[in-house]
Amino acid sequence: MAAYAVGHTQGQYSFCEVTMERYQPNATPLTEADKAELQRLKQILERAVADGVLTAEEMTQIKRQINADGKVTFEELELYRQLVQEKINEGILVREIT
Hints:
Elements: E1 2-9, E2 12-18, H1 32-49, E3 53-54, H2 56-66, H3 74-90, E4 94-95
Parallel strand pairs: 3-4
Antiparallel strand pairs: 1-2
Helix pairs in contact: 1-2, 1-3
């Protein structure tokens, strides 16, 4: 949920809350194999970020898992965004520079 300024009157802003859901018209339900792949990726991501430093080796392992089935899904990218990228953006996690 996000709040957006929608109007400005004499230095005052009105805010409204907006909820956004992603519409994926061509999305197919996840198979049990897809769910298992996501669970493995989640475990790898959680281990990789646990110490606050994402190493090059951990990043290679993450990429290998994302590409393990030959496709990159929205769910895999969303999981990476939530568990890694947001922490990097917030300064909670740093990437090792090699």
